[in-house]
Write a structure and sequence with these properties.
By secondary structure, this protein is of the alpha+beta class. The chain has five helices and five strands.
Length: about 150
């Protein structure tokens, strides 16, 4: 669920670009922040339409890009060819484990990795803005039965 601050930030972002908070934008914003995980645009479109909205596919894609530019949504290409979206709660960075066989995505946080990244950046005089770490492998369900990397189970 979105916080008041996230909703306010989105409205301010829209107004700063001369845009309005339309019913469709509100519906998409609410659905993105109601979900806890990674969703593709088609899943979001279906969920919003189930609620009775007549939102178009083009509107979903345009407004996902708008949410991404506002910094409230991140777009990932996690192992598969499709893009997945997730809402951003400021100050809550995380990384991803992605199963190459079934596509399952697991979020994790690691203070050790964060510390190591900080060390690496300091050593190279680099000022990081954000990072994205994706570890591709096989989940415990697929590991025993998966063949070569990326193969699906029979």
């Amino acid at each position: 669920m979105a916080t008041t601050g996230e909703r306010k930030r989105f409205v301010e972002y829209l107004h700063s670009r001369g845009l309005r908070l339309t019913q469709e934008r509100q519906a998409l914003f609410d659905e993105v922040f109601a979900q806890h995980g990674h969703l593709d645009a088609e899943e979001l479109l279906a969920a919003i339409r189930r609620q009775g909205s007549r939102i178009s596919r083009a509107t979903v894609y345009r407004n996902l890009a708008l949410l991404e530019r506002s910094g409230l949504v991140r777009k990932h290409r996690l192992a598969r060819s499709r893009h997945l979206y997730e809402h951003v709660h400021l100050g809550q960075d995380h990384d991803h484990l992605v199963c190459a066989a079934c596509g399952r995505v697991v979020e994790f946080r690691s203070p050790g990795i964060a510390a190591l990244l900080g060390e690496i950046c300091r050593a190279h005089g680099f000022d990081p803005v954000r990072h994205a770490l994706q570890i591709l492998g096989r989940c415990r369900i697929c590991a025993p039965s998966a063949g070569p990397e990326g193969a699906t189970r029979a």
